[in-house]
């Protein structure tokens, strides 16, 4: 006798599909590989970089003519670290700082290769340290540390590049002046970073800032 199932199937019908194994994807469904950074994350990083450019465009013209070592960095660090922390608090992933500062440095390259150099050096310095210590920017300490290290790392790089390209600009200045300048940058950037962390938390609670996983 023929099988009962075969008697009920119309002639010429295709054979029934075999039952899928546990965990198997449905037939015809294609998997999509998620990239490390999504488009919205690139856009957000570019917005933070634009905010850093606006801050520097306002601060530097007022402070740089005074020729006080570290003054421009200290004032810029107060506002720059504010935006950097907001960016790191949202993106969170390893590489977030170099993503933001990399975009920012490329914008600065159109202005001056010296600015491009010390911005990129500051971003690399902060990224390397935070990657080794925190493996990302989750929590409260890592974003603040990344922003402060970025601001503090730019100053020595800026001095080295200035000595190389403009050797007469800071000639005759005592070495302790640079230590005082670095301490001032630490204080101002820390204050700005803490303010940025608080604002990021308030925006997240209000649903205005989406924190990435």
Overview of this structure, please?
- The chain is 67% helix and 0% strand.
- It is built from seven helices and no strands.
- Helix 2 crosses helix 4, helix 3 packs across helix 6 and helix 6 packs antiparallel against helix 7.
- By secondary structure, it is an all-alpha fold.
- The N and C termini lie far apart (61 Å).
- The protein has one domain.
- Keywords: Membrane, Transmembrane, Transmembrane helix.
Question: Which helices and strands appear, and what pairs or packs with what?
Answer:
Layout lengths: L3 H5 L30 H25 L7 H21 L4 H14 L3 H21 L7 H25 L9 H31 L8
Produce a short descriptive summary.
The chain crosses the membrane at residues 42-64, 70-91, 103-125, 145-166, 173-195. The chain has 7 helices and no strands.
Number of strands: 0
Strand proportion, as a percent range, falls in under 5%
Class of secondary structure makeup: mainly alpha
Biggest sheet features = none
Mean model confidence by pLDDT: 83
Counting structural domains, the number is 1
* Helix-strand topology string: HHHHHHH
Terminal CA distance reads: 61 Å
Rg, Cα atoms, Å: 26 Å
The percentage helix is 55-70%
Unreliable parts = 1-10, 23-32
Shape category: globular
Q: Helix count?
A: 7
């Amino acid at each position: 006798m023929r099988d009962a199932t075969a008697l009920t199937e119309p002639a010429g019908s295709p054979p029934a599909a075999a039952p899928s194994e546990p965990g198997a994807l449905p037939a015809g469904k294609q998997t999509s590989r998620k990239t490390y950074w999504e488009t919205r994350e690139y856009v957000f990083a570019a917005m933070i970089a634009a905010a850093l450019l606006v801050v520097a465009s306002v601060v530097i013209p007022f402070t740089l003519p005074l020729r006080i070592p570290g003054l421009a960095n200290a004032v810029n660090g107060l506002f720059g670290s504010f935006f950097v922390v907001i960016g790191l608090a949202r993106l969170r992933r390893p590489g977030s700082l170099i993503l933001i500062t990399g975009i920012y440095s490329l914008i600065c390259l159109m202005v001056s290769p010296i600015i491009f150099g010390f911005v990129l050096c500051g971003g690399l310095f902060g990224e390397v340290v935070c990657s080794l210590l925190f493996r990302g920017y989750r929590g409260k300490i890592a974003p603040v540390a990344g922003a402060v290290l970025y601001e503090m790392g730019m100053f020595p790089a800026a001095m080295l590049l200035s000595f190389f390209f403009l050797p007469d600009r800071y000639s005759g200045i005592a070495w302790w002046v640079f230590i005082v300048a670095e301490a001032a940058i630490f204080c101002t950037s820390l204050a700005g970073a803490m303010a940025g962390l608080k604002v990021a938390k308030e925006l997240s609670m209000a649903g205005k800032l989406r924190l990435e996983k």
